[in-house]
Each structure stands twice: as structure tokens, then as C-alpha cells.
Design brief:
There is one protein chain. By secondary structure, the chain is α/β, with parallel strands linked by helices. The chain folds into two domains: 249 residues, 3-Layer(aba) Sandwich (Aspartate Aminotransferase, domain 2); 147 residues, Alpha-Beta Complex (Aspartate Aminotransferase, domain 1). Helices cover 40% and strands 13% of the residues. α5 links the parallel β2 and β3. α4 packs across α5, α4 packs across α8 and α11 crosses α15. It starts with a helix and ends with a helix. Bound molecules: pyridoxal-5'-phosphate. The site of pyridoxal-5'-phosphate has 15 residues, from α4 and α5.
């Protein structure tokens, strides 16, 4: 959780600015707010880091991805290709809009692969919701030709990849719209927060309306604003934006430290030839929030995880059994358990989610153990962690 590692006077100062005026609302109240606009500043900081032409801060990353899908024109009955490895929020966003998730294979980048997308295409495929997982990035040079060839809409969920890029372009900016999460676990946190990004003015204006009940935000009297479209309340508060702003300013430093610490850990672990790593499609663009270890096979990874647990080693995720990041545990989706009927339950789905055949994804995630990188680690802590991992991996080798 690198962002939270560095909480300090900067966050307190930004929050205090807001509390001094008492204007916790991001819009209007010009005469009372002493020119304090934290949400706008947060958006500008995100634009600075990502190079996005437009950014809209919202209440969380789930809302941001839903806004990205909605403003890209995704709606009832549209098939959207999604990965089986993501925060379940991605799938929920597709479902809530009435669209139909179509699961496709990921590869050793931990993201959808070009061949996986191609195999999942049907005449009704409208979009791909690409998710850049675990601080890294998808292989865009192989994916973009597929998007173009089949005239698909690309929406990117970069919820876990703020600060990551591919060959100089930030994750989230390859398609029509993208999203980042600033929840408590991310490289920068707002407590709860998300940011929608796009390079397209029309898409941004739609998002600006969509995320605030359709308000056009023209003029200074909220009560007299027009509503070009129907929207909902996905607004961020000034208090959350204040934290997000202070945290986002720290991202270049955090990313640099993460990269240094990850490099040291990789060097130390590389003495064991059985320990491999997930492929970074652009190693220079890594946000380095995770070290994604790929063991030779799932059984090897499972036994290593058992040893890590037995030895009290913490700070890692074994996503294969994680309740909300991998499809194996998503029984509520497989059984389509909902509060009230969703369009998919009327329209039908092209896949039976309880019988998905995604062998490549099963193997990759079965082999994957992800360690969160901390930007405040000392060299001694990194050495100790490497020793612990090596010990647990080597104990497996002895048994297999
Ligand atoms: C890839 C991805 N998308 C979306 C989300 C949802 O973000 P939030 O928790 O801010 O709603 C997350 C959160 O973990 C995520 O990892």
C-alpha cells in the first residue's frame, strides 16, 4: 500500500484547506470557498502525471470504469470482452449497464491477450474492457491491431495501474476512455476515489454530466443548471479529493522507490531458477506496485503459498483463491444472484459463466504469487523477504 505509507503533513494541509472554508462540495459556492477547488486540482495533477487531456475525479474506481463504459456508448445487450482476472468491479460495471460480459483468456502479462480477444469475438462484440493488472500493462502492440481490425471500442480499466505506461502512453489512454482507482490499497489513495480519463472532449463532457445527475455545470447557480442527459451521483467530495491530490503529487517518488525496491528483490530471488516473473509488456512503464512471481506450475505455487503461510510470511496475494479478483470464486456471478433483475437475465448471455473454459488463465493465475512492493522498505527488509521467499520455494523443490 505505498500511498498510505507516506501519509503526512501534505495530506493534512490539503484537508485543512477544505475544512477552513467548510465547502466540502466540489461545485459552486464561489463566494464562500476562498478559491479552494481540490477536486479540480486533483484532476489537474492526474492529467500532469498521465498526459490525459481530460480527467474527472469521481467517488471510486468502480464508478470511474462504469462512466468510461457508459460514455463510450456501452449499453443493454452489447457484448463486452472482459478478463477473468480483475477486481469484480469491472464485471459489475458491465452488468449494471445492461451489457453482457464475455470472458476471454489472459496471458503472462496478467492481462487480456490479443489471441484471447480474437477467440472471444462474436458478431455482437461491441467493446473490449481491457484491465491493466497488478501495476503493469497489457501488450498494446499486439492488442491495438485487433481492436482496429474488428472496429471495437476500447475501454481501459487501469484501476491498479495508475502511474504505469506502455511505450510512453499512460495506461487508460489507448482507447476511448479509461479509469483509475484511488481506493485505500492503491499507489495513491483518496480514501475512496477514482478518476475517469479521456483524450476526447465530447466523451469528457458526457462523463461530467453522467457523474453528477446529468448537470451541465455551466454557470454558478446549481439549481438553474441544465441536464443534457440522465446521470447519477458519482461525485467525489472535496475532502477525498484533497487527500487524492496530496497523494498523487507523491506518485513519481513512490514509483521510483517501488522500481528500485522491486529490482533489488528480483535480483535476490533470481538465484532460484524456478522463480520466474510475469511479463511486463513495457518494463520501463511499470508502476512497480507488485512483484508478480510466476512459479513453474500451479502446484508449485500452491505449496510455496502453504510454506509462506506456515512461516508467517505476509504481504502477498495468491489470487487463484482470492474471493474477488479471480473468476473461480465468483459464485454470485456464475449463479447470477442479483438484488433485482439485470438486463442480462432478460437478454441472456453468450457464455455459461459456471462452465467457462479458460485453461490459459487458470494456469497463469494458478502459478501467480503477487507481493505488494513497499516504497519505505529498507535494504535489510528486502533481503529478509527475499530469504523468506527463497526458503519457502526451495522447500517445495525438495518435496516435488
Ligand atoms: C482493476 C480494478 N478496477 C476497479 C476497481 C474498483 O475500484 P474502487 O475500489 O475504487 O471502486 C479496482 C479496485 O481494486 C481494481 O483493482
Amino acid at each position: 500500500m505505498p500511498g498510505t505509507e507516506l501519509f503526512g503533513i501534505e495530506e493534512k494541509k490539503e484537508i485543512a484547506d477544505v475544512l477552513e472554508t467548510g465547502i466540502l462540495f466540489r461545485y459552486n459556492h464561489e463566494s464562500l470557498r476562498n478559491d479552494i477547488w481540490k477536486a479540480k486540482e486533483f484532476e489537474n495533477e492526474v492529467k500532469k502525471i498521465t498526459g490525459a487531456r481530460y480527467a474527472l475525479a469521481v467517488c471510486n474506481g468502480s464508478a470511474a470504469i462504469m462512466a468510461a463504459l457508459a460514455t463510450s456508448g456501452i449499453g443493454p445487450g452489447d457484448e463486452v470482452i472482459v478478463p477473468p482476472f480483475t477486481c469484480v468491479a469491472t464485471i459489475e460495471a458491465v452488468l449494471m449497464l445492461g451489457a453482457i460480459p464475455v470472458f476471454a483468456e489472459i496471458d503472462d502479462t496478467l492481462c487480456l491477450s490479443a489471441s484471447g480477444i480474437e477467440k472471444a469475438l462474436t458478431p455482437k462484440t461491441k467493446a473490449v474492457c481491457l484491465v491493466h493488472m497488478c501495476g503493469g500493462m497489457a501488450d498494446m502492440d499486439s492488442i491495438m491491431p485487433v481492436i482496429k481490425k474488428h472496429n471495437l471500442i476500447l475501454v481501459e480499466d487501469a484501476g491498479q495501474a495508475f502511474g504505469a505506461s506502455y511505450k510512453g502512453t499512460s495506461t487508460g489512454l489507448f482507447g476511448k476512455a479509461g479509469s483509475y482507482s484511488f481506493d485505500f490499497f492503491k499507489i495513491a489513495t483518496a480514501g475512496e476515489g477514482g478518476v475517469f480519463v479521456t483524450n476526447d472532449e465530447k466523451t469528457y463532457l458526457l462523463a461530467d454530466n453522467f457523474c453528477d445527475h446529468g448537470h451541465d455545470h455551466i454557470g454558478t447557480n446549481r439549481g438553474m443548471e441544465n441536464h443534457p442527459i440522465i446521470g447519477f451521483n458519482f461525485r467525489i467530495s472535496e475532502l477525498h479529493a484533497a487527500v487524492g491530490l496530496a497523494q498523487t503529487r507523491k506518485v513519481p517518488y513512490i514509483r521510483q522507490k517501488n522500481r528500485e525496491n522491486k529490482k533489488k528483490l528480483i535480483e535476490l530471488l533470481s538465484v532460484n531458477k524456478n522463480i520466474g516473473f510475469a511479463r511486463l509488456a513495457d518494463p520501463n512503464g511499470d508502476s512497480a506496485t507488485f512483484l508478480n512471481i510466476l512459479m513453474p506450475e500451479p502446484l508449485y505455487a500452491q505449496q510455496t503459498v502453504e510454506n509462506l503461510n506456515k512461516n508467517g510470511v505476509t504481504g502477498f496475494n495468491y489470487w487463484y483463491t482470492n474471493m474477488y479478483h479471480f473468476i473461480n470464486q465468483w459464485d454470485h456471478i456464475k449463479e447470477m444472484r442479483t438484488a433485482s433483475k439485470l438486463p442480462i437475465q432478460v437478454l441472456g448471455s453468450v457464455q455459461d459463466y459456471s462452465k467457462l473454459d479458460l485453461p490459459e488463465s487458470q494456469i497463469v493465475i494458478g502459478r501467480l504469487i503477487s507481493f505488494g512492493i513497499r516504497c519505505t522498505w529498507t535494504d535489510e527488509q528486502i533481503e529478509q523477504l527475499a530469504k523468506n521467499i527463497l526458503k519457502c520455494a526451495e522447500a517445495v523443490k525438495a518435496n516435488v
